[in-house]
Specification:
- This is DUF1127 domain-containing protein.
- InterPro entries: YjiS-like.
- It holds the Pfam family YjiS-like.
- The protein has about 50 residues and is mainly alpha-helical.
- The chain has one domain.
- The protein is about 75% helix and about 0% strand.
- The protein has 3 helices and no strands.
- Helix 1 runs antiparallel to helix 3.
- The longest helix has 20 residues.
- It is elongated.
- It starts with a helix and ends with a helix.
Length: about 50
């Protein structure tokens, strides 16, 4: 993977991670996600 593609993937991961982190526990539960799973879900979303 080239540098630009790596950077774009990292940015998408950070955006996803930050968006999920902003949700409260109730909103996360509605999505079926626990706070401790945010990193895994964000990585999965971008294909890490």
């Amino acid at each position: 993977m080239n540098i630009l593609a790596s950077y774009k993937t990292w940015r998408k991961f950070r955006e996803t991670y930050n968006e999920l982190s902003r949700l409260n526990n109730r909103e996360l539960a509605d999505l079926g996600i626990h706070r401790g799973e945010i990193e895994r879900v964000a990585k999965q979303a971008v294909g890490y």
